[in-house]
Amino acid sequence: MAAARNITVANRNQTCPITTSSSQLSALIGNPRPNTFQFSGTTFPRIHRRCSSIPSLSRRLIVVSAVSELWNALTGADPARESLLSIRRGMLLFRQGDVQGSLVEFDRAIELDQRQRAYLWQRGLSLYYLDRFEEGAEQFRLDVAQNPNDTEESIWCFLCEARLYGVDEARKQFLEVGTDPRPVMREAYRLFRDGGDPEKLVSAFSCGRQNEYFYASLYAGLYYESQNKHDEAKLHLMAACKCPYGSRSDDYMASLAKVHCDCRNWRFG
């Protein structure tokens, strides 16, 4: 009979001993053959299979991965779920004006689940307002690489790079994306890509839907900011905040308009 072993599992509330046998552990972890390993039906990544010429490293990866899976199974840990919870917390903190706190949560989400890295446009927005423009541009470029129809991410990448290199240089490397189904965003995209008059953008949607006027005002203000025209930027961004959609909607970008004004110390009269 296999000797029983005690495993101590700690959680936030208490530490509890779990008694298991070597055979039970073997059943959980399995007996890996060289260069192949599965655990709970999961095949390990390509990078592991490419290391077959270094068996000691492969075995180490197998053991570490197996122990991690076992620990998660015993403690009920779910990194993917925890990652999503971190994203939600980050979004809530951003809405509340805690931009630095939001970035901490977004970074934690990536640590928990690396798959989130290429989709966290919210992280890019936080980086912009923390003046970390190079990292922000990198985040938006990752997003567009995954979804080549992300109009707003393309614009935000430009905004980051305009702060780094100037408008002309940023426009030379402007991210081309597919056609946005929203008329206001198609016009905003052309404005940032080709240059033009942001007043025409606002005028074109001043009598349109509430959300269209909001987005026209928001991106007109952001365009002016990229041109270092701060008075005009303030006028349009505050208009975006005050309009019915900007003041009542739970749209993340409505919260962003308020965060923008707070970060610039613009006070509503």
What does this structure look like?
By secondary structure, the chain is mainly α. The protein has a domain at 180-269. The protein has helices at 22-29, 46-49, 55-75, 79-95, 99-112, 121-129, 133-146, 151-165, 167-172, 183-194, 198-204, 210-226, 230-242, 244-248, 252-263, and strands spanning 4-10, 15-21, 38-39, 42-43. It has a two-stranded antiparallel sheet with strand order 1-2. It has a two-stranded antiparallel sheet with strand order 3-4. The longest helix has 21 residues, at 55-75. Residues 1-58 have low confidence and may be disordered.
The main sheet comes to:
2 strands, antiparallel
Number of E-type strands: 4
Percentage of residues in DSSP E strands: 5-15%
Question: What would you call the structural class?
Answer: mainly alpha
Q: What is the radius of gyration computed over CA atoms, rounded to a whole number of angstroms? A: 25 Å
Q: What's the number of helices?
A: 15
Task: Catalogue the unreliable spans.
Answer: 1-58
- What is the distance, rounded to the nearest whole angstrom, between the alpha carbons of the first and last residues? 79 Å
